[in-house]
Specification:
Layout: E1 14-20, E2 23-28, H1 38-44, E3 58-60, E4 64-74, E5 86-89, E6 94-97, H2 100-108, E7 116-125, H3 128-134, H4 145-149, H5 153-163, H6 168-176
């Protein structure tokens, strides 16, 4: 919501990747990290991309564990539900992987054709996210391909609101007068 008091989440689009009795975790999809490139990260990890690292966006995924990488990617047809290091995102044909192997695969051209790399994640304790939603801190929209893998990060928040039939300009104006 426009009135979000935490500046780290102002106008954020967050994909909830896991949600249960213990709490929830998600990845911010529309906050690219300035000055951080995929090739730079590969170099820091000692992964040789042979000068051909693909243009994988690197995002601020959230304030928890900002030094840890998370890769969102489509799951291939027939992907095993127990693939090591892959968290299947319920209701979507997506996985989140935290292993070095996926970075090596992407760097060598053997990885998924679309991916978003995030440093850090957003986390909520048990019941916290539900309370924030009930207090109108967050709106809940369907996750679409463009919201997840689209390259126009500046438009993702507006796209999410429009998918709910909400005019982002009217919402921002109303929040400014509250």
């Amino acid at each position: 919501m426009p009135g979000m008091s935490d500046p780290r989440f102002s106008h954020s689009v967050v994909l909830i990747c896991a949600h249960g009795d213990e709490g929830a975790m998600g990845i911010v999809l529309n906050k690219p990290l300035p000055g951080v490139g995929f090739a730079d990260l590969l170099g820091q990890l000692g992964i040789d991309a042979e000068g051909r690292a693909p243009a994988v966006p690197v995002h601020f995924g959230g304030p928890v564990e900002p030094g840890r990488g998370f890769v969102l990617h489509p799951l291939p047809e027939g992907a095993e539900s127990e693939d090591e290091g892959v968290l299947r995102i319920p209701g979507l044909r997506l996985g989140m992987t935290t292993t070095r192997n996926i970075l090596e695969d992407i760097a060598s051209g053997r990885g998924p054709d679309r991916a978003v790399l995030s440093l850090g994640y957003a986390g909520w304790d048990a019941g916290q996210l539900e309370s924030e939603v009930l207090a109108n801190g967050w709106l809940v929209a369907e996750a679409g391909d463009e919201l997840i893998f689209g390259t126009d990060n500046s438009r993702k928040w507006h796209q999410a609101l429009k998918s709910l039939g909400v005019d982002p300009l009217a919402l921002s104006t109303a929040a400014g007068h509250a």
